[in-house]
């Protein structure tokens, strides 16, 4: 970390902070907790998985609709940090609210989860856009990849603490129920998230901006409309966004529904959680590796590599039956997950105008989030129609193939410079 500046380190630390939410709430403990609550309420496994998918779709739809509008407003001087703080506060307070949801209220649980998701993902939109304010174009791949690596390493600590509390409760070593143990995990998440966001809030500031105008909201809509009118001028940006729309859909769906999928296959909660922890540990060096290889081969080739790995994952998912199979799948995910996300972020930051980074990251958000509506919905519908979640996961291969094809028409990042 010595070669990075204070601003770069502070920015990267938010990946360390927010990733606790990603692993504990989005991926691991909350889905298992929700599935248990839904089962106790008499909801069938396939239906509860589908309802989780629908909830994810609703949350992402809300944020996708707001993203470009809020992003355009945030490009004005002094606005980016305000929007970041608003969504950060929403996400952390909603996560704390999970502690107080009655153990038989699965619908209320999903409603609160919606607010945690909007808060977390909304803050990340503006966090991502801050990369243009903390580093240079030449360092973006490395800084972005290191951020993701820190996220994987940092999130492992609260994840291990949460697992320890849950397992000690299950073994009756500590006198609390599994429900209380899960709630303690939610508390750990919120405290970790808030604590390690402090450097980002304190040290990162908006350097590139558009000067404020009278009637900011009306002016923002005019700028947004002008961007649509000038779409040919930004051909590279929008070609990339189309490719990103498809391949990131599959990535996000696999992340958000992996534990629910494993649970439907009859895998134990302990086995699932340990496998997911291993993913965090293995993904960190691979994220750094992707950043290093991007310097040598270009980000575009490394994005191709990540997409191809995910295509293999979708095919392998059909044959998933045992915990060994799940481990193989988890390790495949670990090799590509951080790299494809980090390089997507840094490649996009390199090709957008810095003073309009929020506006374009708003589009980055809307393409990513609208895609995230399709994936979970597709898995949910397919699971209900076929009675098997495996076919829903396999259907995601279509999205990766389409994303790969569109990426062919996007210039290499070195050529884009």
TrEMBL record:
CDD domains listed in its UniProt record: MFS_YxiO_like
Molecular function via GO: transmembrane transporter activity
Membrane-spanning residues: 12-34, 54-76, 83-101, 107-127, 148-169, 181-201, 237-260, 272-294, 301-320, 326-348, 360-379, 391-410
Keywords: Membrane, Transmembrane, Transmembrane helix, Transport
Superkingdom of source: Bacteria
Gene Ontology cellular-component terms listed: plasma membrane
Pfam families: ATG22
Keyword rRNA-binding: no
Coiled-coil stretches noted in the UniProt entry, renumbered to this chain: none
Domain Major facilitator superfamily (MFS) profile: 236-417
Transmembrane helix listed as a keyword: yes
Entry-linked PANTHER family: AUTOPHAGY-RELATED PROTEIN 22
Identification of the protein by name: MFS transporter
Organism in which the protein naturally occurs: Oceanobacillus chungangensis
